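pinging the channel bc i need a second pair of eyes. not urgent but kinda urgent?? the chain im working w is below, pasted from the shared doc
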Amino acid sequence: MPPASLARFLFSPGQSTSLQPFLIRADLKGDYSEERWQGLGTLQGRVVAVVFTEEEPGLIRFISLRKATRTERQIYEKAIQDTMGSH
């Protein structure tokens, strides 16, 4: 059984799990043995926060996936508005 925090984000085999658009920055919070990244994106109509690593080119391993906080949602929405307004 997955953790409760992931229960809302279960996928069927073969289901697309695209997180688009997606904001990414380096995760510098800890001294990890791997390069980690933090991201904000939408999934199933919700803004989510993820932490992931790219184990090899094109192979991404999710470490954490959760509902974005209010502050994270505001950051995400502002970035999308700024991007959309610049075109």
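so DSSP finds one helix and four strands in the chain. and Residues 17-82 form one domain. — does that match what u expected or am i reading it wrong
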